[in-house]
Structures are given as structure tokens and as C-alpha cells.
Amino acid sequence: MLADVLGHSIARRDIVARTSEIQSRQGGALVALRGVRRVFGSRVVLDDLDLDIAPGSFVSVVGRSGEGKSTLLRLLAGLDAPDAGSVGIDGWPVSGLSAETTIMFQDARLLPWQTVLGNVGIARGPGWRERAMQALDAVGLADRAGEWPSVLSGGQKQRVALARALVRHPGLLLLDEPLGALDALTRTDMQRLIERIWRRAGFTAVLVTHDVAEAVALSDRILVLRKGRVALDVPVDLPRPRTRASAEAGALEETILEALLG
Amino acid sequence: MSLSLSAPPVVWPRPRFNVRPLVPWLVPVAILAIWQIGCDAGWISRRTLPSPLAIGRAAWTLTLSGELVRNAAISCERALGGFVIGGGLGLIFGLLNGMSAVASRLLDTTLQMLRNIPHLAIIPMVILWFGIGEPAKLFLVAVGVFFPIYLNTYHGVRLVDAGLIEMGRVYRLSPAAMFWRVILPGAMPSILLGVRYGLGIMWLTLIVAETISANAGIGYMTMNAREFLQTDVVLVGVLLYALLGKLADMMARALERICISWHPNFSSAAEH
Fold it and tell me: Residue A197 is part of a domain; what is its CATH number?
């Protein structure tokens, strides 16, 4: 009994220590796009796009399918290069994949042949087990470290993917509809987790989503992409943590939907 | 009411043996019994088919004289030698062509053309090239084993989830880490399938090669026995091939269990 209580308090202290570890990187990355153009065949997906994203802010990009949201994210990640213009992060042009930028995909993309811990610490390096364990703690899955990904639920898999992203202390976290495949309840849960971790760690976050309510719940700023251009750019000044279905949020959602459909 | 509820439950005596696992063996045992009785009663000629007991006696005599073990060892050596050479090359070319578009364009068509030649059809050429010594058998087994392992490795590597490879790039895995942590484990189920096919072809090829020309090995033993009408020895050889084939298959299954323990089909506690 005593050992239980002691063990518990030690675990609590560890969690506090580990979450402070996650914040170690100071501030998020500054993103600057100038005249970015991306063409696939004869289709112009991004057309002369200028965009600045403030360090540490949470920006959502909404738009219909095929309006260039994911293309924008892939350019920021360095998985793709623009046909014209420049993409800069912290004043440096993006050329290829950077250690400071991490992307979370719609599917968790966990290696089924690695344990949860092995997946979180995929890049290995000295002390990777400890760092991976801290990140798993931060997403509340420390007790599943030794299991295979196949036994986890969809939401848990995405939390592992989030932990894997956190291990690198990213300056820029790109989220490519990571919650799109989850059920409504798990989705809300994940949104809160992402918000909490973002507020603690202070990285810049860019979220691509179909879900206007999700964008309003999480972002400092919402961009609507249409025909390769920014059709709407609105700040979201609602206090955090946000209550859903407030009048202001509702009005904002209405405005964004108008821009999307219009 | 409460009295009847609190009455001790009736315990039926449980049967001492669980007979259910024995049921599948009823038919084989019955066949063996009829076979033995048929031989003893003279319905079946000893030249056509020796009795199960006679086969057992022959196996025992061959074991005592050391002939059985010596020939089985020689056959196993040939089988495994050919398997390691052919399987190793198949694995190397499969990985190379799976990962390199240049290598695949250069080599895959050639290999696909060669695959269509039944490897047993080249036995006359092999005898001309190598005679009837050990290299001929190693060569035939290696050629037979090469293709299933090459094909399954190649397809296994090609079918590794592109999303996982992209993830590996995002996390900036080194080429070595990408190979060992993403590509090889991803291709492993397919590679092991190739290994199991390869093991089947390995024994088949060896049986044919040893039967046609050999001066030692299980095939030699059976062909020799045929000359002297020792049908019991011939059947010992046949059963020995079956036993070794079964053994190889069990080894392949064990390998699967070890290498792809992460797979939901082999669900077990993860141990890193």
C-alpha cells in the first residue's frame, strides 16, 4: 500500500519533470512564403501565394478537396518543392526535409513491427528510450510502451504518432488532417490534447482540416484556400480553453463556411 | 428452495483420457492395420508393397549399419548447401531490384525470362557441365530455390507501404536505418513465404537429381535398392524424404514465428 502511494507520487513527479522537458525548445518557427506557385500538369494548385506565419502561432488551413491544402503542407515539410517562389522557415529557405519540422499524417504511419516505444523513438540516437518515454507520458500512453501498434485503437495510434513528432522538439508541427479518420468523441479528445501540448511546447502549428469547427476550436488564425489563393484570412481571438458552440465561434464558423462555399 | 440451491452439485467422474485428439489418427492406423494384415495373409505381394513392419525392420537395420544416417546427412548437406547459395542470391537480387529502379530495369526482365525455364529441364546440360558430382546437385537445387525467393523478396520490397517510407524520410532515417527498420521488416512476410516455397522446391529438385545420378544420398540408396528389388529400402527412402520435408517446413514456420511475431496473426506479448 505504502509502496503503491510512493510509486504513484514518484510517477507524478516524473510526469511533471518530463512535460517540462518537452518545452525545452524556445519558441516556434517563423514561416514565410513568397510568390509560391505549384503546378501539376496544367492544373495550378498554388498560385503566387504569399504567407507569413508568426512563431508559436496555431494556423488552420481549410478548403475543399484538391484546393492545395496538402500541397502547401508538403512544401512546408520539404517533401515537395515549389515551381516558383520561395518557402522560408526561420529565415532559411526550405530545401528538403529538416530536423526542425515534423508532419503528422491522416494515418498514423506506425511501423507494425516496432513496439510503441520503438515507433516513438524511430530516429534512435543516444538516450532515445528516455526521450521516447517522456513523449509517451505527455500523450498519456506511457503504460502502452511495450505493445505492438496493432492492438491500439485509431485514436491511440494518432497519439503515438503525436508523441513521435514531439520527441524531436519540432519548431514547426504540420498536421495533415490527423483527426479526419477518428470518431467524434476521440476527435474532441485529441483536439484538446494537441492544444494542451502546443500551449506547453510553443511550436508553430499548421493544421490542414475539412472541419471548420475544429479549425475554430484550435487556431489563432484561419486561412481559407480557394483556387490556389488565400480567399479568407481571419484571426480567431476567442479566449482559451475555448468552449464549443459559443455565439462568437458560431458566427466565425458561418463566415468561414460562406468563404468556402462562395 | 434454499435447501435445494445449497445442495452440493453432482460431480460426474471425468473420463481418464481425453479421446478427442486421437480421432484424426483412427483412419491412418486402420489403413496401416489392413495393410499389415493384407501382407501377412498374402493378398499383397511382398515385391509390390512390403508390410509396414518390414519397412520398420529395414529402417532399423539401415540405422544400425549407419547407412541411413550417412545417406540422410549427405542429402541434407546438398539440400542446405544449394538452398543457402540459391536463396542467398535470390534474396540479394530481390532486395537490389526491389530498392533500385536502375537495377530492376537492367535485370528483372532477364530474370523473368529465365524463370520460365523449368530448372529440371536443364539436367542433361548440368550433367554435361558438372558430371554427376556434388556441384551438379548444388547447382540444380540453387537454381530451383533462387526464383521463388527472388520473386517474393522483390515483390515484398516493392509492396512496402509507401506511407511508411515517407514517414522514414520525414524522420530523416539513414539509408541503413531505412533498410533495417522499414524495408526489410516490411518485406519479411513475403520473403518468408518465398522461403517456404523454396524449401519445397529444394527437396523436389534433390530427389530428382539424386535419383538420376548419384553415388551417395537418399536417392542413391533407393535407386540402389531398386536394382536388388529391396522395395522395403525404397520405401524407407521415400518416408525419409517426407520426414525431412516436414522438418524443413516446421523450421520455416518457426522462422515465421520469430521474424514476424509483430503480425496480428502471431499475436503475442511484445518483447523488445
Answer: 3.40.50.300
Task: Residue A216: give the domain boundaries.
Answer: 26-100+170-261
If you measure CA to CA, which chain A residue comes closest to B269?
A: A147
Q: Summarize pLDDT for B15-59 with one digit per residue, the tens.
A: 667 788 888 889 999 999 999 999 888 888 878 889 999 999 999
Over range B100-105, report the average pLDDT: 92
Cβ pair B164:A122 closer than 8 A: no
Tell me whether residue A79 is in a domain: yes
CB atoms within 10 A of CB A18: 18
Q: Is residue A131 part of a domain?
A: no
Per-residue pLDDT tens digits for B221-248: 998 888 888 889 999 999 999 999 898 8
**Residues on chain B touching A103 (C-beta within 8 angstroms):** 170
A201 domain residue, yes or no? yes
Q: How far apart are CA B20 and CA A178, in angstroms?
A: 51
Taking residue B32's Cβ as centre, other Cβ atoms within 10 Å add up to: 13
- Domain ranges in chain B? 52-260
Average pLDDT value for residue range A252-257: 92
Q: What is the mean pLDDT of residues A12-40?
A: 67
Segment A78-101 mean pLDDT: 90
The H or E element containing residue A61 is strand A58-62
Q: Which residues of B touch A169 (CB under 8 A)?
A: none
Cα A134 from Cα B246, distance rounded (Å): 48
CB contact under 8 A, B267 and A150: yes
Q: How many domains does chain A have?
A: 1
A11: pLDDT strictly greater than 80: no
Q: Which CATH number fits domain B52-260: 3.40.50.720, 3.40.50.410, 3.40.640.10, 1.10.3720.10?
A: 1.10.3720.10
Within a domain: A138: no
Cell (9 digits) for A104 = 503528422
pLDDT band at A100 (very low <50, low <70, confident <90, very high): confident
Q: What percent of chain B has pLDDT over 90?
A: 58
CB–CB of A246/A238 below 8 Å?
yes
Which residue bears the cell 508553430?
A: A204
CB B205 within 8 A of CB B144: yes
Q: Residue B165's CB: how many other CB atoms inside 10 A?
A: 16
Banded pLDDT at B131 (limits 50, 70, 90): confident
| CA neighbours closer than 13 Å in the CB half-sphere of residue A104 | 30
